[in-house]
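lol ok so funny story. i was supposed to be doing the assay writeup but got distracted and ended up predicting the structure for this chain instead. priorities right. anyway since i did it might as well share w the group, maybe its usefull for someone
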Amino acid sequence: MTHPAHGAVTLAEIWRGAFLESAHQGHAVVCDDSGQIVEAWGVPETVVLPRSSAKMVQALPLLESGAAAAHSLTPEHLALACASHQGAPIHTNKVGAWLSAIGCADDDFKCGPQESRDNAERNAMIRAGETPCRIHNNCSGKHTGFLTLAKHLGAGADYVDPDHAVQKACLEAFERTTGETSPGFGIDGCSAPNFACTLHGMARAMAHFASADADSAEGQLRQAMGAHPDLVAGEGHACTRLMRAMNGKVAIKTGAEGFFVAILPEQKMGVALKIADGATRAAECAIAQILVRLGALDPNHPEALAYTSAPIRNWDGLETGHMRAAPTLL
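and the output, tada:
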């Protein structure tokens, strides 16, 4: 397996005054609807784990199996199935209602408990002496989708087992959309298998989502994300902020360890990028600049500038530097 630093190029820079203090390197690929590379930085064939950026692909069997229709799932449910949410009440209340509707409870989740990333909710829980539950896990929406699919298929309770019918369906969807045979998987933070592919393959999968008909499974998922960016992540998070800035016309999704993808229906293009050192701030900067480059994001929109030319301030509020996209992306 190629090391992610091999052949990587600088995608984001940190400046302090007149000095380049840090540089984040990585790889990025833009694909068209034929799966061909339009633009690339670094090594497109780098093998990667897309982490939570693959949630849209993992949600495909939920729709394609008929489970979503059988359980009358709405676009809000679909957005949550694709989400890395912050565990705010807007997320946990909706996931909880969905979980109850399929006859399941918190103990049925295979993802671990996680503290809410919503400050008000976390503080309220601490004051009340409440402990985090599995529903607070940022992947609980995806896992409710897995549980819904498992029930629809009449499959067993251990839905994260790689040999379980749910994960076999996810692997089939992953290989079909990436156009590749996956070389294997790692276990994600939520205990589910995360299948590997090349960065080119992931960009190809996103282009497939971008070019699919609106009423297809792929079309329904991308539209649900664009319509409900608050459910996909949460207030203050890059996915939510940037999708709002693009008026829901583009679906984007972060993944752990510096991964990001974008689905651009109007351009019928898909984007995938990986920062070699795993830095989230660099992935957010790079994806924003690529969206600007592709004409999907207004370069002067405040939310765009917050990532492509972000001021860095010290504890006294003084602007001491800035983060910017590397010249190669401009």
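The radius of gyration is 19 Å. The chain is about 40% helix and 20% strand.
back to the writeup now i swear
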